[in-house]
Amino acid sequence: MAKKDKEIAQERKIELLSILKKTKDETLKNNCVKQIALLSERFNLRRTKEEKDLYCKYCRTVYSNKTKTRIKHIKKNKKKILKKIIICGNCGKDQKQTL
Question: What is the pTM of this model?
Fold first, then answer.
């Protein structure tokens, strides 16, 4: 039963992401993000790379024009690694992603 519930939650999450990408209404987008976060917490679903580019995981709001993105070169064990840093315009927290 738990496996079935997790699959249903994954399908709902995909549907909410498609609604999030299509709409232009900010309140609907923020409500979709909150529902996605609740499903992820309840059923232990991981965030995909697409989701990381769409919304902030701390304040649960959609990234707008106020957000800043930077690409940074980091040396780790004598290897160059590209990292993408997204700074939220609402809460000011940053999220780092490897490219």
Answer: 0.79
